[in-house]
Amino acid sequence: MSPLSSQVALVTGGARGIGRATVAALAGAGARVFLWDRDAAAVDEAVSLLAGQGLPVSGMAVDVTDREAVQLAVQRLVEAHGRLDVIVNNAGITMDARLEKMTEAQFDTVLDVNLKGVFNVTQAAVAPMIAAGNGGVILNASSIVGRFGNFGQTNYAATKAGVIAMTQTWARELARYNIRVNAVAPGFVLTDMTGKMPEKVLGMMAEKTPLGRLGSPDDIAAAYLFLAGPGATFITGQVLGVDGGLVL
Fold this sequence. Notes:
Elements: E1 8-12, H1 17-28, E2 32-37, H2 40-52, E3 57-61, H3 67-81, E4 86-89, H4 104-132, E5 136-141, H5 145-148, H6 154-174, E6 179-186, H7 192-195, H8 199-208, H9 217-228, E7 239-242
Parallel strand pairs: 1-2, 1-4, 2-3, 4-5, 5-6, 6-7
Helix pairs in contact: 1-9, 3-4, 4-6
């Protein structure tokens, strides 16, 4: 039997990059996976690709900053499938600028998606998890930036540090229901976003990483899969760094 057989999983920001790789990993392990993304066309493309590979994947255009839409989408998911076992809060954006140049809009928008969006989704989803009494897993996307900061990323670093704090708080609060809460903190990962950077910059990132390369979306998806699976049933409140040794 597959490790996540009969389970239902939700991945936000699941249409591209790390999110899509995570959807594929969870579905490949037997879960019925729902991907959310605010880009409807990207959702359709990702679902078509993954379902075409025989994976049990469905999708919906959902903006995690819209609390009412999030609550309704969770309600429909649970009504249709009777359960929700795994949440991966992957949706996130960047709007970089140095402190003296960063606008209030840049600051607020990144916090709305990366921090409040995680709160919105988790708060909506945890109620049916508790009511079902089957336990569950909540996994949050942090970053090494949330631990050590990064030039030009006041807003992003603040959200990723906040995600760690929420992860540890929720782990304490939800353990009584056998709901585990952990975070994954990637290092430099080659995605559509980083792929637009100059080759010289990407080379410098790889050189800074002791393992000598950038991470791949599949590297991060493997961490989520482990934390969601039966090998991690005694792990909660942790931040798993997947950074090629960058923080050493």
